[in-house]
Design a protein that fits this description.
The chain is an alpha/beta fold. About 25% of the residues lie in helices and about 25% in strands. Strand 16, helix 11 and strand 17 form a beta-alpha-beta unit.
Length: about 375
């Protein structure tokens, strides 16, 4: 089969790999019909995530058709059209029993915190991902779900990570009616978090980024107020002015390890890797939220970064909530929102990239060229 293969930082290409086989009675083999490149894939591409091994296939957002199932699989059959959450999880351990699918205890021998994620380094279990023609799906009776007949493929693939993660970020904010919410980052997850904040009762939503085309999309898609931090000497002062000098009730960090905004911190964290990523967005979140407010962290970071203003967080009495999204827990409500017309995730799709051209897709996305917001990956296209 053809698959994207990692060859080192900034180096990916498409190669021939063996079609995966059933390794456990609960496995399924899925033929990928549509995938995506996620902003957090860029952390892998840039060499920020530990134990990203040469030869790995990325891709934790994908849908497809079941080609084969193991003898113990009861809920799927050959030919089923399925969407697969980015979490690999067993469904029965202490954490899965509590809905913490992203913290499954049985699928990742390399960590005590995170569970398994498709295509996201051996730090997350070493599972090959869906930027390929086929993928092995463990615990096939637990993770994948049939795609409803009324749902389009492009909506379905964004339900495997980007939309549920943004929605989860708004949930973690514990938004009350009338709250002011600031979202840092106008990538797909940040845009979905901003749109979801309205659904949870926000009275005001503000999105901060430094790319005008993404801020245009934040106004169009999420109906948010916007600030370009590159146009302000002190973005925190501007946000305080905009919130009666109190700060927002909720701030959502949808940026993570590669945040711009401070040359020194970006170079130290994202380039020289002297810390587990640039702490700029997280520190801005701690500064921009009001005393007693809530900070929701969705952005992916490597090992614990230094330079975090934790003393400020303690002294301000902040609540900080974070996790990888337990995707399948969000699906029932999100299905309702999409079917009722409140959300249309595919509106964020800007590029459809053939698998064979995925190196160009990563370059476009990494360099923020051609107005790119959400690129999909199409196996078999030319």
């Amino acid at each position: 089969m053809r698959a994207m293969v990692y060859r080192g930082p900034y180096k990916v290409r498409v190669e021939e790999k063996d079609i995966p086989s059933v390794e456990h009675p609960n496995d399924a083999i899925v033929r990928v019909t549509l995938g995506a490149i996620c902003g957090s894939d860029l952390h892998l591409y840039h060499g920020l995530i530990p134990d990203t091994r040469v030869g790995t296939t990325f891709g934790h957002e994908f849908i497809g058709v079941v080609e084969e199932v193991g003898p113990s699989v009861q809920h799927l059959k050959r030919g089923d059209r399925v969407m697969v959450p980015f979490n690999v999880y067993c469904g029965s351990c202490y954490f899965c029993a509590r809905g913490l699918y992203s913290n499954c205890h049985n699928v990742n021998p390399n960590a005590t915190a995170i569970g398994g994620i498709y295509g996201y380094s051996h730090s997350c279990g070493g599972y090959d991902g869906g930027q390929s023609e086929f993928v092995r799906v463990p615990f096939a009776d637990v993770g994948p779900s049939l795609i409803p007949d009324w749902m389009s493929d492009e909506d379905a693939v964004l339900l495997t990570d980007a939309l549920p993660t943004g929605y989860f970020g708004a949930q973690l904010g514990d938004i009350s009616e009338g709250d002011t919410v600031i979202v840092l980052g106008a990538g797909p997850v940040g845009l979905f978090a901003a749109a979801s904040s309205w659904l949870m009762g926000a009275g005001r939503v503000i999105v901060v980024d430094h790319l005008d085309y993404r801020l245009d999309k934040a106004r169009e898609f999420a109906h948010a107020e916007t600030y370009n931090f590159a146009e302000h000497r002190d973005i925190i002062l501007e946000l305080k002015r905009a919130t009666d000098y109190l700060g927002a009730d909720v701030v959502i960090d949808a940026v993570g390890a590669e945040a711009d905004g401070s040359f020194l911190q970006h170079v130290a964290g994202a380039k020289l890797k002297l810390q587990g990523g640039s702490p700029i967005a997280l520190n801005w979140a701690l500064d921009a939220v009001r005393k007693g407010g809530t900070v929701s962290v969705l952005g992916a970071y490597g090992p614990a970064p230094t330079g975090i203003k934790f003393g400020d967080a303690m002294n301000k009495g902040l609540t900080i909530r974070t996790n990888q999204c337990p995707v399948k827990r969000q699906w029932p409500r999100l299905f309702e929102h999409i079917r009722n017309g409140y959300l249309k995730p595919s509106e964020l799709v800007t590029h459809r990239i053939p698998l064979e051209h995925i190196a160009e897709g990563y370059h476009l996305f990494s360099s923020k060229l051609d107005g790119i917001i959400k690129p999909l990956v199409v196996p078999g296209a030319s």
